[in-house]
Amino acid sequence: MTDSSLSTIELGDKLTVAEVTDCYLRMLEVLLAGEAVSINSANLQRVDAAGAQLVFAFAQACAQQQLPIDWQEPSQALKESLELLGLAEKINIQQQHI
């Protein structure tokens, strides 16, 4: 896979209800382009339920379209938020490299 066919989404330092609209629009662009995606959440320190649900929904949409996700340095905050909502086991959020 070449770098040109891999889109990167940087989640920043927080993913709360205030940020989900902008993040959703970026994720939608990636889905519509049908590209594999790299998600970097290394700096993510705060995730609320809306942010965790957005990440989960995006991962599910990628799976339905058979688009691989490369989780770059998944943050502890993201993992814990997904776990608290019972979503962690439903997506594979281990650090991977394509």
Compact description:
This is Anti-anti-sigma regulatory factor. The chain is of the alpha/beta class. It has helices spanning 20-33, 49-64, 76-84, and strands at residues 6-10, 14-15, 36-40, 46-47, 69-72.
CATH superfamily: STAS domain
Supply the number of structural domains: 1
Uncertain regions: pLDDT < 50 for 5+ in a row? none
Fraction of residues in helix: 25-40%
Q: Separation of termini?
A: 8 Å
- Mean pLDDT score: 89
Number of helix segments? 3
Q: Output the CATH class name.
A: Alpha Beta
N-to-C series of helices and strands: EEHEEHEH
Shape: globular
Q: Look up the CATH topology.
A: Transcription Regulator spoIIAA
CATH 2nd-level architecture: 2-Layer Sandwich
Biggest sheet, strands in spatial order? Answer: 1-3-5
Structural class: alpha/beta
The rounded Rg comes to 12 Å
The biggest beta sheet reads: 3 strands, parallel
- The number of E-state strands comes to 5
Fraction in beta strands: 15-25%
Pfam family, one: STAS_2
Domain MlaB-like STAS: 9-87
Protein name: Anti-anti-sigma regulatory factor
